[in-house]
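seq as requested:
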Amino acid sequence: MKMLHSLGLATALTAMLAAPALAQDSKTIPPEAAKLLEPLPISPTGQVVPGYPDGAPASSPDVLKLTDQEIATLKSKNFTAGIVMHTMDAGWPTLQVAGIKTTLEKYGIKVVGVTDAKFEPGTQISDLEQMIARKPDVIFSIPIDPQSEAAAYKKAADAGIKLVFMDNVPKGLAPGKDYLTVVASDNEKNAYYAAQELVKAIGGKGEVGIITLVYDYYYSVAARKVGAEKAFKEHPDIKLVDVGTFTAPEKAYSVATAMLTAHPNLKGIFVAWDTPAQQVVAAAKTLGRKIVVTTNDLAQDSALNVARGDFYAVGAQRPYDQGVAEAKAAALGLLGKKVPPYIEVPTLRVQKLDLLSALKIVTKEPPPKSVVKLCNGECY
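struct tokens:
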């Protein structure tokens, strides 16, 4: 979920829309790679929110459909939207915003601003307050701290602004009342898949660890921890010896260093997403340790880690597709249509074998030459 510095949105959006789903002709893809590209069934429920004590029922993005007449109505209304992000210094948010903006443009909905809080909750609250003052009809956002920022998002709801969340819902806000919906990847299954692949890679036995975000109330990341733990518990010869936490992705290096030092027999680590996973790989190399690392999320930079073998497997989100779903949900909400409370994008399984095709599915762009070169003919 890191850098896409070279992705100029204006130019890239056209390429994203035009790019085919797979990196190569499907006839040239080995059956094993094609199988990995098949989406897994979505998990039945998502985040626990008011009204859904067992988790909101998950719906596929396929349920979000607009007729030509509804699109014409949207275009006549001159609706506006704001996007309040946790960070823009990563591939995941860049692709989310691209998916939102491109889709809203089709509906005649103008984006009045995109903010970057640089992972600072206080900054995001300020960004949100300034966006509310601009009185958009809808705000898209992913809260950094769903607890401390809840009141700020409630102000937006009370001001009559419709809210569409990415991955996480602020504490206490209710779907259909305070916000339209949340669109997320199948975070638990993403992690479950990656952790199962780690187990396979180490032969089904040995010591493993998890490194994740310190905030357990950050639902999308907490669900990944649950998924990884679930996978490890299914194997009696796998021992989860440590769960390390960080407050910011760059701090994963020191967390990994401490974990690897404390556990000299550690064979593998599941990391919550790709940016901190890169730090874990760096720490292991510095210590001269050979371990298996699996993670979630994929972007152009972390694809290099897969091509090099630094990441053995990735349960990837589809952030551009999430952005499209978020925009469609907002459009339906602006038309007064009912929107499901939780929309879930299925897991994309990524290994070196299907890397080029998976990367194109995620980024909507041809794989960079640097990734293709590293693959050395072993990726499809």
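Confidence is low (pLDDT under 50) at residues 1-26.
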